[in-house]
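Tip: read the tokens left to right.
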């Protein structure tokens, strides 16, 4: 990143939204608004709700040079708001319609990763009725929504677990459920900034897995940076994260999540997040800081890299 002082911009920050991750987005958005103002930009915060025409009107009134998309979850990172911004002719941060939509659909993303030769877990997409009837995969396995983020709706089913039918019959996340082999080991994550993988973080949590609470509650997880893994594992994680970013057609920033099975020496790509959180406990800002990029400089880079398409 260049240290040369550049002209300030008018930036509209979209925050809130209508997904299950609204509170995360509000936290991200507030952090970003403050950082962009510190970086010298003129910032308008636009809180998004169910009233899309009101959001469009607020954007037109703000007349920004660029939009910082701080929305998370459905309608915020699945290509929907990206399509609206393309329609309005406004450059925006993060990935475009296609990459956002594919990344948010876990089944579609896994197909892309497989075709790129990247290591993913065996999986199967089933309906709630099929899950209620029988185990779709040998135990242990994970069930998760196909199109939610932040570990919303994720359950691990093990030997002797009798929750499968209950989970299936009360499933609130649509008709598709992804069942995926459970990969033992450690949770790793790698942020990508432009054309570079920044670092590898190990996420340690006292919870059963890195769930919503572990991600966003104070003290919910402990980030070890750099991750205490062999050098070749760290380099492979960074390589796969960058390849996954490129395979999806992401732009700006992304974050890839992995499981590393120490016993088997196996690294598995779980998913790519095209809208990484930027809250006080988030991983992307932490990795950027580790590489010498302060949070205001990170946000400044993101708005200057913003554009249309893909």
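Filled-in amino acids:
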């Amino acid at each position: 990143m260049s240290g040369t002082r550049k002209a300030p911009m008018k930036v509209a920050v979209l925050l809130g939204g209508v997904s299950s991750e609204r509170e995360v987005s509000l936290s991200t958005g507030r952090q970003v608004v403050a950082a962009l103002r510190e970086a010298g930009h003129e910032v308008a915060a636009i809180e998004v709700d169910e009233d899309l025409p009101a959001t469009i009107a607020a954007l037109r009134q703000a007349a920004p040079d660029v939009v910082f998309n701080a929305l998370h979850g459905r309608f915020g990172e699945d290509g929907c708001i990206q399509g609206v911004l393309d329609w309005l002719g406004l450059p925006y941060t993060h990935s475009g319609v296609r990459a956002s939509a594919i990344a948010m659909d876990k089944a579609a993303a896994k197909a892309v990763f497989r075709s790129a030769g990247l290591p993913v877990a065996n999986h199967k997409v089933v309906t709630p009725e099929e899950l209620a009837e029988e185990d779709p995969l040998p135990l242990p396995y994970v069930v998760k929504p196909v199109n939610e983020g932040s570990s919303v709706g994720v359950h691990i089913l093990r030997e002797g677990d009798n929750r499968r039918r209950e989970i299936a019959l009360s499933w609130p996340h649509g008709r598709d459920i992804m069942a995926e082999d459970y990969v033992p080991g450690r949770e790793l994550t790698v942020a990508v900034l432009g054309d570079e993988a920044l670092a590898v973080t190990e996420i340690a949590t006292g919870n059963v897995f890195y769930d919503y609470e572990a991600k966003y509650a104070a003290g919910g997880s402990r980030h070890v940076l750099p991750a205490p893994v062999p050098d070749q594992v760290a380099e492979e994680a960074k390589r796969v994260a960058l390849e996954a970013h490129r395979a999806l057609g992401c732009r700006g920033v992304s974050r890839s999540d992995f499981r590393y099975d120490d016993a088997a020496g196996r690294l598995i790509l779980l998913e790519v997040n095209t809208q990484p959180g930027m809250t006080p406990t988030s991983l992307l800002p932490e990795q950027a800081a580790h590489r010498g990029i302060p949070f205001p400089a990170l946000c400044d880079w993101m708005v200057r890299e913003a554009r249309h398409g893909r």
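DSSP finds eleven helices and twelve strands in the chain. The two ends are 24 Å apart (CA to CA).
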